[in-house]
């Protein structure tokens, strides 16, 4: 008996002499019902196996269904879904007045099926016959702020088992002691104003190494996704179909101020933090618009900004920051040679010039810098007497 406005789903497979193929259709029908929230779902077959389409419809009709969605489960889009299926379904509907139906488009060319197929192809390319993963994979690894002791355990474990490491300028060479003796080492450091390794060449090196079946560690200073072009490399690997993993690292933007005894936030002093680059990737110039947009943050951390220090402080003063706002410039953070210079927006550029501060350094601007006086723990603070002595040395 046909019910009133009750919906059912008929999942139609081709039908096979192999029981496991037919069971696959029945399981697919069950999952469609469970995950789709459809109460009335039946499996049926175009030929060979039972129930056939007429019997499948009958089962749904006996349950009071009046409207059926017919879903061809991986039937070929030619003769089966354009010819046989509509003809058989139309004949069944004609024998059951009051029954309405719709037939879905075949799955074969559906966007998600294509994407799933691509995913399986990529997965299979990098999996051996016994199911073990091949080593053709790239790991985009953050090496931390400098000191080898600040590597993550995941980073160290990957270094001890990799075939090749591709590393940057700011990676401490002591980190490389974790490598196997036969691991290949490739330096691709970028030094401002000096020799540059083109990003396109780095991307291709990673792709080619992984396709050669190698376990590749791309070792980047700090965190790979903070001013490290890690996202560019990840996109290149994704486009090339090369599997990869992101291994976060301790960023110098967070660790270096901590090693200088400067918290980036502190109750009553700072509840917002802006992290900026002091040199744009395209030209190396300071992005004054970005600096102005974030000038009001309680704490401003600037990486790669030493060469533009005077321009930075002048821009912040122009944006309304008090000239007496504390500033710290921390060079070689987390290393034994760490050096921290303290000043204000009006004095820090002069002090940094006297001491001839050069990269790498992290600039911290805000009231939290004052807390260093009680919280510094790692280095011997640079006194005003030391600064004066350095000034006299420069003058002579």
CA radius of gyration? 32 Å
CATH T-level fold name of the largest domain: Methyltransferase, Cobalt-precorrin-4 Transmethylase, Domain 2
Distance between the termini: 107 Å
Give the fraction of residues assigned to helices.
Answer: 25-40%
Largest sheet: 5 strands, parallel
Strand content: 15-25%
Detailed description of the structure:
The protein has 396 residues and is of the alpha/beta class. The chain has three domains: 7-109, Rossmann fold, CATH 3.40.50.1400; 127-250, Cobalt-precorrin-4 Transmethylase, domain 1; 253-395, Methyltransferase, Cobalt-precorrin-4 Transmethylase, Domain 2. The protein is 35% helix and 18% strand. It has 13 helices and 14 strands. It has helices at residues 19-36, 53-62, 79-94, 111-125, 153-159, 199-211, 230-240, 252-259, 288-293, 309-318, 348-354, 372-375, 384-395, and strands at 7-13, 41-45, 67-72, 100-103, 137-142, 164-167, 184-187, 215-220, 244-247, 273-277, 299-303, 326-331, 339-344, 361-365. A five-stranded parallel β-sheet has the order 7-6-8-5-9, sandwiched between helices. Strands 10-11-14-12-13 form a five-stranded mixed β-sheet, sandwiched between helices. Strand 3, helix 3 (79-94) and strand 4 form a beta-alpha-beta unit. Helix 6 crosses helix 7 (230-240). It is elongated and about 95 Å long.
């Amino acid at each position: 008996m046909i019910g009133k406005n009750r919906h059912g789903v008929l999942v139609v497979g081709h039908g096979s002499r192999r029981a496991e193929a037919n069971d696959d259709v029945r399981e697919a029908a069950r999952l469609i019902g469970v995950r789709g929230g459809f109460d009335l779902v039946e499996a049926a077959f175009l030929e060979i196996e039972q129930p056939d389409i007429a019997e499948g419809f009958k089962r749904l009709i006996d349950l009071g269904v009046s409207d059926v969605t017919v879903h061809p489960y991986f039937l070929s889009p030619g003769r089966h879904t354009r010819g046989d299926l509509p003809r058989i379904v139309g004949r069944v509907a004609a024998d059951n007045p009051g029954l309405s139906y719709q037939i879905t488009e075949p799955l074969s060319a559906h966007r998600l099926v294509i994407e799933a197929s691509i995913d399986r192809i990529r997965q299979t390319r990098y999996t051996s016959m016994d199911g073990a993963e091949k080593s053709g994979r790239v790991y985009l690894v953050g090496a931390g702020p400098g000191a080898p002791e600040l590597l993550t355990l995941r980073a160290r474990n990957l270094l001890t088992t990799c075939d090749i490491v591709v590393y940057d300028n700011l990676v401490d060479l002591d980190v490389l002691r974790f490598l196997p003796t036969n691991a290949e080492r490739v330096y691709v450091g970028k030094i401002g104003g000096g020799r540059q390794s083109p990003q396109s060449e780095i991307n291709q090196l990673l792709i080619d190494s992984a396709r050669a079946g190698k376990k590749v560690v791309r070792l980047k200073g700090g965190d790979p996704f903070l001013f490290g072009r890690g996202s560019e490399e990840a996109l290149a690997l994704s486009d090339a179909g090369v599997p990869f993993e992101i291994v976060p690292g301790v960023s110098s933007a967070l660790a270096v101020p901590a090693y200088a005894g400067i918290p980036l936030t502190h109750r009553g002093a700072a509840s917002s933090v802006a992290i900026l680059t002091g040199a744009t990737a395209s030209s190396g110039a300071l992005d004054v618009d970005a600096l102005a947009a974030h000038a009001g943050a309680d704490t401003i951390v600037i990486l790669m900004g030493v060469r533009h220090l005077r321009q930075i402080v002048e821009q912040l003063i122009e944006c309304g920051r008090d000239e007496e706002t504390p500033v710290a410039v921390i060079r070689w953070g987390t290393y034994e040679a760490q050096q921290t210079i303290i000043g204000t927006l009006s004095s820090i550029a002069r002090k940094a010039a006297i001491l001839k501060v050069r990269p790498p350094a992290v600039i911290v601007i805000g009231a939290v810098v004052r807390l260093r006086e009680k919280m510094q723990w790692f280095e011997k603070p640079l006194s005003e007497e030391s600064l004066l002595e350095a000034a006299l040395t420069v003058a002579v």
